[in-house]
């Protein structure tokens, strides 16, 4: 679903900082070699993630859902000099592809890429966490939120992708489990007193949750 007129979105893209060469190559290779390339964050959202990270200058970022590494590379741009980004994904088949791009980036030594079940891995991670990006299996969004919220520093930020789910979120006829899980999640965090919620119609919907 297109939330914004294509011409307006293209105009915005042309007036936004361009991707670096490594990110452009990652986009090309993902479209050529990997199934479901739409899962990439993309230029505008990637620059948004980079911008937010640069503003926050996090010491520790946690990403749940790596895919081919585009969003991780964008988020890493704002890391403190000795900062670290932990990114977790369960898909072993993409590991070599994704790691090859991490290894060629200037953040090679700051990205901790883990092939694991996030629900099992997150409890082993020590906080405080400054910034979290959740972009994984939608049915477990609420679980991931519950696992990270007490590890966040005050003022930290949790970003959650795909919360409008191609518009299905407001389609009363859409009753599949993923859509309903996202509806429940959106209601849950919008009413949680531990965070300040802001849902933005960026790409497929991006929830910004500032931890109080």
TrEMBL record:
EC assignment: 2.1.1.-
Species assigned in the record: Aquirufa novilacunae
Molecular functions (GO terms): methyltransferase activity
Entry keywords, A to Z: Methyltransferase, S-adenosyl-L-methionine, Transferase
Top EC class of this enzyme: transferase
Entry protein name: O-methyltransferase
Gene3D superfamilies: Vaccinia Virus protein VP39 (3.40.50.150)
InterPro entries: Cation-dep_OMT, SAM-dependent_MTases_sf, SAM_O-MeTrfase
Pfam families xref list: Methyltransf_3 (PF01596)
GO BP of this protein: methylation
């Amino acid at each position: 679903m297109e939330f914004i007129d294509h011409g307006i979105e293209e105009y915005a893209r042309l007036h936004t900082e361009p991707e670096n060469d490594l990110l452009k190559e990652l986009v090309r290779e993902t479209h050529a070699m990997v199934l479901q390339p739409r899962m990439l964050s993309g230029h505008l959202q990637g620059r948004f993630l980079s911008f937010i990270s640069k503003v926050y200058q996090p010491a520790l970022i946690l990403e749940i859902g790596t895919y081919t590494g585009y969003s991780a590379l964008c988020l890493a741009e704002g890391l403190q000099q000795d900062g670290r980004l932990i990114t977790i994904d369960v898909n072993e088949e993409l590991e070599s592809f994704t790691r090859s791009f991490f290894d060629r980036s200037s953040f090679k030594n700051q990205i901790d890429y883990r092939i694991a079940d996030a629900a099992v891995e997150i409890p082993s991670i020590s906080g405080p966490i400054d910034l979290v990006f959740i972009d994984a299996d939608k049915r477990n969004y609420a679980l991931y939120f519950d696992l990270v919220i007490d590890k966040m520093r005050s003022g930290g930020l949790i970003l959650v992708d795909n919360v409008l789910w191609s518009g299905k979120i407001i389609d009363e006829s859409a009753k599949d489990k993923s859509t309903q899980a996202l509806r429940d999640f959106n209601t849950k965090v919008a009413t949680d007193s531990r965070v300040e919620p802001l849902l933005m119609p960026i790409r497929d919907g991006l929830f910004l949750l500032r931890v109080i």
